[in-house]
Amino acid sequence: SAAMDATQGLIAHGCLDHVRIGLSPTSVVEEGDSPVTYSPAINLLAEAIFLSDLSSEQTELSALKFLLTAGCRITSSARHRGEAMLRGSHLLQTIRVCYHIY
What we know:
This protein is mainly α. The chain has helices at about 1-10, 40-50, 55-70, 90-100, and strands at about 20-25, 35-40. It is about 50% helix and about 10% strand. It has a two-stranded antiparallel ribbon with strand order 1-2. The model has no long low-confidence stretch (mean pLDDT about 85).
């Protein structure tokens, strides 16, 4: 839950706006390997929350704070003015998790 709280603070302060993480199918990327795919960091973090164990009240509270902060956050760059951080299936899954907690 401490990691969720720390990440929620980073989201609230805009530190993860437009941050992308590169994922490779193998642990070591060599020339000629499959290309690295880049995903928004917020999507990977949200997926980790969706898969986490939410059996304790503290973890539930931390997950709710994270998901509500990420779901309500609008990016503020000139290039992507007014884009929501969570969209599509990640936003839908966020709503489902919040519903099941309460």
